[in-house]
Structures are given as structure tokens and as C-alpha cells.
Design brief:
Distance between the termini: 71 Å
Oligomer: single chain
Largest sheet: 2 strands, antiparallel
Order of helices and strands: EEHHHHHH
Shape: globular
Helix content: over 70%
Number of helices: 6
Number of strands: 2
């Protein structure tokens, strides 16, 4: 089309894609909610520990676990606040969130038989997701390796394997946990 004597090249957008400003606002809301994952998880597990399992885990193992998880949370939160516009910062923030959740239960409960099943499940899922997130970070920062289609195919396969590993762990361990 011609506007004011100048040719305007408008990019055709499909109806399923969000415009950049809406996409940015959506991602900010999503990452704000994800940033609350570790504090919510720690509050839930702390409440559970206080009410039900305080005799199974000693306080000297729980406090370092909480501090480590909060350190990972703070690193991810600061990264997202300061560098939200960079994909690498968002990936590193997600990685720090998953590692914070993945490391909490093994540190708080050195004997895995004493750990609550829901917390252990979330910890294992976080552990399984941290490997593809770390790989995703390394193939995109500081230089993107391969083309977008290759990265998409490899990352889709890795995230699928991580999801299947989490489901396989859950189906293997869940009956054993309920039997004891």
C-alpha cells in the first residue's frame, strides 16, 4: 500500500501470533507468576514440615536448603527484573528456578524415604527440566548455534525426553511410595 507517497511494507501476521507489545506484557506476567514458584513451594513445604513432618527432618538440614533455594530464586528474579528483554536472561532465570526447586528436597531430607512425596515429585520434575534448560541456554548464548529449525527440533526432543523421564519416574515410584 502507498501512504503519503511512500510505500509501506506491512508484515503479515497470522491471527495466532501476538503483537510484540502484547507478547511482552504476557511474558512479563508469566515470568512474574513463575518467580513466585520457589517462595510458594518453600511456604508450602515449610507449613507441611511444621504440621506433619517436623520429626522426620531436622532443622539444621532444612535451613541450608531454604537458604540455597532462596539464593537461586533471588538470582533468577534479579535477572528477570533487570534483563527481561533478553531471552538468555529469561532462560537463565527459569534454570535457576528449576534448580532451586530441584535441590530443596534432597538437601532438606537427606533420607529420601522421609521426604514428602509431593515435594520429592516436584523436585524430580525440576531436576529433569534443568538439563534441557541448561542445554537450551548453552546453544543460544553467547552465539546461537545452528539454525532455528535445528534448535527447535533438538530442544523439542530434549524437553519431550525430560517430560517422559518425569512421567516414568512418577509411575515407577508412586505405587511403591503409597505401599509404604
Amino acid at each position: 500500500s502507498v501512504v503519503g507517497g511512500h510505500r509501506c511494507n506491512r508484515a503479515k501476521s497470522s491471527p495466532m501470533t501476538l503483537e510484540p507489545r502484547y507478547r511482552s506484557a504476557f511474558l512479563k506476567i508469566l515470568f512474574s507468576l513463575l518467580a513466585l514458584a520457589i517462595p510458594a513451594f518453600l511456604l508450602f513445604e515449610g507449613y507441611r514440615w511444621y504440621i506433619f513432618n517436623h520429626y522426620k527432618s531436622r532443622l539444621e538440614t532444612l535451613i541450608p536448603a531454604v537458604l540455597l533455594s532462596l539464593a537461586f530464586w533471588m538470582i533468577g528474579f534479579v535477572l528477570v527484573l533487570r534483563f527481561f528483554h533478553r531471552n538468555e536472561a529469561r532462560l537463565l532465570s527459569l534454570l535457576s528456578q528449576t534448580l532451586g526447586i530441584a535441590l530443596f528436597i534432597p538437601m532438606a531430607y537427606p533420607d529420601p524415604r522421609m521426604a514428602p512425596f509431593s515435594g520429592l515429585t516436584i523436585s524430580v520434575i525440576g531436576l529433569h527440566l534443568s538439563a534441557p534448560l541448561l542445554f537450551h541456554f548453552h546453544i543460544t548464548f553467547p552465539v546461537s548455534m545452528g539454525n532455528a529449525a535445528q534448535r527447535r527440533n533438538i530442544l523439542s526432543a530434549l524437553y519431550l525426553v525430560a517430560s517422559l523421564a518425569s512421567v516414568a519416574w512418577l509411575t515407577q515410584v508412586s505405587p511403591l511410595w503409597q505401599a509404604s
